[in-house]
Amino acid sequence: MTFPTCRFHLNVKPPSHHIDSRVIITRREPVTTPDQPPTLTNAIVPRIIALGRDTSPLTLEHALTPIPMNIVVGGYIVGYPLAGMSWHHLNYLLGLRSLGHQVTFLEDGAFLPPFDPSTGNAGDPTYGIHHLLRSFQALDLNIPWHYRFGNLSFGLSIDDMQATLRHADLFIAVSGITPTAWYDLPRRTLVIDTDPVYTQVRLTQDTAFLDYYRSFTHRATFGRLIGTPRSRLPTADLDWIPSQQPIALEHWPVTPLSPQGRFTTLGKWDHSADRIIEFMGRQIPSSKSREYETLIDLPSNTGAPLELCMASMPNDDAARYQHHGWSIGDPTTPSASVEAYRTYIQNSLGEFTVVKTLYAAEPSGWFSDRSAAFLASGRPVVTQRSGFEHWLPTGEGLFAFSNPIEAAEALRLILKDPNHHARAARKIAEEHFDARTVLRDLLLRV
User: Using CB atoms within 10 A of its CB, is residue 407 exposed (0-12), middle (13-18) or buried (19+)?
Assistant: First the structure.
């Protein structure tokens, strides 16, 4: 199986959007700090005044029981049909459905052409369509969907998709990969930046990219520190709603720890040169390999069983890490289906991972969707600092490190009482990543 290099092309300038004057939203701002991001207990409660609707202010009790909406979610499952990225989008669909909303999935391959990991070729959506259908079936996700690439379309017809968008209450573009120029979007639109640092720097350098983000009425980001004194990243004069990956907890049950379990992770060893960013006079790569180099002796220093399942890892590097006590796994098997991915995580003792160099160099508060799935499965996580330690609890179930000494100490603590840290991990997921809470909070702010 060959893994692609993702290149997102924005060569179409979307039309501008105007907020309808008949809808006025006033907000009661919460009192928060960077260490206390908005949650449901201090959430913004909007007052919506619209023609034909009750104009009384919404109470928090009313907000916690939202009126079902028609929501179209744009993302990519066919374009990058690997299970980890699929779960990233599926958790949004499952979470919104669990809140009672009517959800439709839209994918357009204009920015990300369909990729077939079994051949390494791009342009044919057959593999990706089958992957989408298998994933929906496995999760009992019976919702309308539409895929379009050039003259090809699957699922809903183009006319039916346009009609669905026109009558929708909200359009959400997860990861900002859905073109909008040729779609009839509803009045409210939201783009979710899931790759902070890269996004914020590119917004200062790419006019078409900036126009795309400006075309939405609302913008959210996984960089929860952006716009606060803790982050140096530019805001591009845009208002950013802090958010994080939702996890549909009912689809991530806790299973008993296996005596043979290892600390595992999946990912990509290195990214292409076009993912290098230049910021404040430095060139920063989107790479994990250099971050692992300082940690190569961890197996011998801690006795912890550590496994890497990394795409694009050169054979020489794999042999070198094996010599230092690491297990090297094949990333293709857990990436083949949503069930295999979940099982791989459930069979792990926990996750040990690093972050891309750009996340470590410019902390934004980003936290991995994969690591959130480990926590939800009751698997403790040891990961490199990226600013998340300012809004997530650490020290039990979740550990942040910035050097090999801190990483080793975290692994030793977990090995002393793995069941305690497994329970703490699930608690963190329930309090911070439950899709019903994350998405309800997000919708309150849109």
Answer: buried
